[in-house]
Design goal:
The chain is mainly α. It is built from 17 helices and 4 strands. It folds into 3 domains: 1-71, Orthogonal Bundle (434 Repressor (Amino-terminal Domain)), CATH 1.10.260.40; 96-305, Arc Repressor Mutant, subunit A (Orthogonal Bundle), CATH 1.10.10.2910; 325-358, no CATH class.
Length: 389
């Protein structure tokens, strides 16, 4: 009887299956094995034969080398999501598996480049998040803006602000409405990470998501994973991150000066200046007690009547911000002749299409198979006899 592939790693199969959004029964049918066999493979108690491994690789669209390469990046200690409901579990598993792929790419690039050093100051954040009040959060947001030399006005580019201060940003399709973004502050990893969803290409919403996740990184670095499973405390964490986002993007003193009135028309006029949605401005006005509960309620009702809860004016006027550290790193490796596209694919144990998507690269950037070799005319010199008819 043929023996299994000794170097096969079950955790790689599990990672790939989840990244492709497959249930074990679906993978079993596609690979022509039983569901129980897939389970044994993933647990590492049984090894597939070479022909079975070849089929798994084809089905999962990954090179065979992927399944025999150790996972060397640390898995996240905890991730801050907008929703922890059971309905999003499959989407979270898929996102987290692809996120592990992305971390491998970041780790790969850090062997060649120095990313900006993490530049998060000590802001005297209370160790117990339950003691945080709005006044404290406002103060923390203001001091961070000062430390990052952002002034009192609108922030030009949120993604660039994060990246220039050592926070890695990944923009990707998360595949679920409830997964707008998430953030990771695993202590064993040098650079914090903010993940933004590209499922909805909304510039204003994406900036708010980035500020929200920054709030988690700043305010909740000591929160343990168990706390995230407690509904009331999870809700408090989300509310605090939301408040931080409003405070960071719309600092009280300077923003208040721009408010001539508290109408949807005023908020709409200020939207392109402060690069924040009308909804966020209404929320911030209520936070600052510039409008009372009844005024806020009327604004929300009018917002809904105009159909602006789903899509506001100007939402299509500008493209979402994209990260540059990782895609620029891949491009530089190739441009400087350090690596070829083929070598990058071999090093990362993935085909070009996955790497392009993970790194926000243009489709086909790493695909050299369809590029025909080019011929060049020789430079004319005295040793070349011109052709004559």
């Amino acid at each position: 009887m043929a023996s299994g592939v000794d170097s096969f790693l079950g955790e790689r199969l599990s990672q790939a299956r989840k990244a492709r959004g497959l249930m074990s029964i679906s993978l079993a049918e596609l690979a022509d094995v039983s569901q129980a066999t897939i389970s044994l493979y993933e647990k590492g108690t049984q090894k597939p034969r070479q022909e079975t491994l070849d089929r798994l690789a084809v089905v999962l669209k990954l090179p065979v080398s992927y399944f025999i390469t150790q996972i060397e990046v640390d898995t996240p200690e905890r991730l801050f999501y907008r929703s922890m409901s059971a309905a999003t579990k499959a989407s979270r598993e898929r996102a987290e598996s692809k996120y592990e792929w992305y971390l491998e790419i970041v780790d790969y690039l850090l062997h060649f480049f120095d990313f900006p050093e993490p530049n998060i100051p000590d802001l005297d954040v209370p160790s117990d998040f339950r003691s945080l009040d709005n006044k404290t959060i406002d103060s923390i947001a203001e001091r961070l803006r000062q430390f990052w030399l952002l002034g009192e006005g609108p922030i030009v580019n949120m993604v660039r602000t994060l990246e220039s201060n050592g926070i890695v940003v990944w923009r990707t399709a998360l595949g679920a409405k409830t997964l707008d973004a998430f953030s990771d502050i695993t202590k064993s990893r040098k650079h914090p990470v903010v993940v933004l969803s590209s499922d909805k290409e909304n510039y204003f919403r994406s900036r708010a998501d980035a500020a929200h996740e920054l709030g988690h990184l700043i305010l909740h670095s000591t929160v343990d994973k168990k706390t995230l499973s407690t509904t009331s405390e999870f809700k408090l964490l989300e509310n605090q991150a939301n408040y931080f986002a409003g405070s960071f993007l719309l600092p009280a003193a300077s923003y208040e000066k721009d408010l001539s009135s508290y109408t949807l028309e005023t908020y709409r006029a200020l939207k392109p200046k402060w690069n924040t949605s009308i909804a966020m401005q209404v929320m911030r006005s209520k936070q600052l007690n510039l409008i009372d509960e009844n005024q806020a309620k009327r604004l929300w009702i009018n917002l809904s009547r105009r159909g602006w809860k789903k899509r506001e004016p100007l939402d299509d006027s500008i493209s979402a911000e994209f990260p540059s550290l990782v895609p620029d790193g891949i491009k530089m490796l190739i441009d400087e002749g350090v690596k070829t596209p083929e070598q990058i694919q071999l090093d990362l144990n993935k085909y070009y299409s996955d790497i392009e998507i993970l790194c926000n690269l243009k489709e086909g950037f790493l695909n050299t198979k369809d590029i025909a070799p080019k011929v060049k005319l020789k430079k004319r010199n005295d040793n070349i006899t011109p052709f004559r008819r």
